[in-house]
Specification:
mainly alpha
């Protein structure tokens, strides 16, 4: 047991935890994106409602939600801890410092991007997930999520908040996807190009689909 505690207290252990929770959250993003993309059927929300009902009532999914919340907390806490540890390890800045020569701005801004995403998630869950789960618990029925989306995204401020969140998610994934594989030691030369291009594609496609949802509703492409 002591080795377990020592491992996850070390820098390598923290990186391992951030990477594994990050990949788990990436798998959640795939499912979340597919379910939300059902609105693009533009069938009055019928397809979306079917999938949303499945996600809200399936026992396995509801159990995974608990793991998902724990993964979010672990990912955020360990990520901020790593950022602080790295910052404290170099308290005096170099006289000549050209960070852009060795790394991208978004790789150096993961803590900031993660914080923006966290604030976005607070808004997002407050808009939909928390009210729906609360109503299920208190009254035993789901809220009309599709109609709630149509109403919520008539307001430009809400749309802008979602665009900022998705834009931050793009940059966070652009570095985090590849970084997770490196932290887990899965950065073989033979597969590095595949991992890199897959990460870029994922970072573009998923946030784009999620961002188009409020935009399409606001512009009344979806009714």
């Amino acid at each position: 047991m002591n080795w377990f505690i020592r491992f996850f207290s070390s820098s390598i252990g923290k990186k391992f935890l951030v990477a594994t929770t990050g990949l788990f959250l990436i798998s959640f993003l795939v499912v979340h994106c597919l379910v939300n993309a059902a609105i693009f059927y533009n069938d009055g929300g019928k397809t979306f409602t079917i999938w949303a009902h499945f996600m809200a009532t399936n026992v396995v999914i509801r159990t995974i939600e608990i793991v998902l919340v724990l993964a979010f907390i672990a990912h955020i806490v360990q990520g901020l801890w790593l950022w602080k540890t790295n910052r404290d390890a170099r308290p005096v800045k170099y006289l000549v410092n050209k960070p852009g020569a060795n790394s991208t701005w978004y790789s150096r801004s993961m803590a900031l991007l993660g914080t923006i995403i966290l604030l976005f998630l607070v808004v997002h869950t407050s808009n939909f997930w928390i009210p729906n789960r609360t109503n299920q618990f208190l009254h035993g029925e789901e809220l009309p999520l599709y109609e709630m989306m149509l109403e919520k995204f008539q307001h430009p401020v809400e749309v802008i908040i979602y665009l900022v969140g998705c834009f931050s998610l793009f940059w966070h994934l652009l570095h985090g996807f590849k970084s997770a594989f490196q932290s887990l030691g899965l950065n073989y030369v033979k597969y590095n190009a595949l991992i890199n291009y897959s990460g870029i594609a994922f970072a573009v496609i998923v946030p784009f689909i999620l961002a188009m949802m409020p935009v399409a509703i606001y512009l009344q492409w979806i009714r």
